[in-house]
Every structure is written in C-alpha cells, then in structure tokens.
Amino acid sequence: MCRIPFENFEKMMAFDVVTHNACIEVNFRVDASLEYEHCWLGKTFDRSSPKAVYWYGLVPDGSQAYDSDSFREFVSMPVFDGKSLKEIWDSITILSIDGCDADWRLAQYLGA
Questions:
Q1: What is the pLDDT of residues 40-66, one digit of tens each?
Q2: Which of 1, 38, 66, 107 lies at a CB distance of 3.0 to 4.6 Å from 112, suitable for a disulfide?
Q3: 1 occurs within a structural domain
Q4: SS3 sequence of the chain
Q5: What span, in angstroms and rounded, lies between the C-alpha atoms of 80 and 53?
Q6: Domain for residue 93, yes or no?
Q7: Over the stretch 7-51, which tens digit does the pLDDT of each residue have?
Q8: What's the CATH code of the domain at 82?
C-alpha cells in the first residue's frame, strides 16, 4: 500500500499500452470511505481501433464502471460522490499495480 504523487500517477498512465500490447490495472481505496474500499482503475486499448481507453470499476457489482478516451477527462470525471479522482487524490491509497507491489511496479513504469 502506498500513496504516490499525482505527477507520478500521470507519468505511469502515459505508458503506451497500444504499442506494448499491455494494460495497466490499479487496485486502490479511497481512505475513510466505506463505499470505495476496493476499487480498480486502469488503461487498456480497444483492439478494434486501436486506441487507449481509461477505465474505472469502483464497486463489485459493476454499477459504477466508467470509460474515457482521454486522461484529462478520466481524472476529471465526477465519479466519487460528485468529485473527481484529481480532487480526491490525497485520499487515494494504492493497494497494488498490475497485481504487484505498488512501489516496485510504479518504479518499472517510471524507468527507475
């Protein structure tokens, strides 16, 4: 579990998933929220286009799943009780990235 600066998150999400035939999956929670304790977000690509797609899966029943074609729109969507990811970033704890330790995997994306 870790917290990361928004700038590092933005750099990680800039990774070219289309060229690398990859996806990014981040498991996270919103601190002090009973609703958003085990959430997912990520970036993948649409094989039919191919273009990058940013997505949220916020609750287990799938009722709060959202997609976006741009990072700016993605982080600005008011999906957390009317607030955006960018607005609540200081309350986000990253649980894992791509199923790995968050600090270790983030370093891989950032080239450290």
A1: 999 999 878 889 999 999 988 889 999
A2: 107
A3: no
A4: CECCCHHHHHHHHCCCCCCCCCCEEEEEEECCCCCCCCEEEEEEEECCCCEEEEEEECCCCCCCEEEECCHHHHHHCCCECCECHHHHHHHEEEEEECCECHHHHHHHHHCC
A5: 19
A6: yes
A7: 999 999 999 999 898 999 999 999 999 999 999 999 999 878 889
A8: 2.20.140
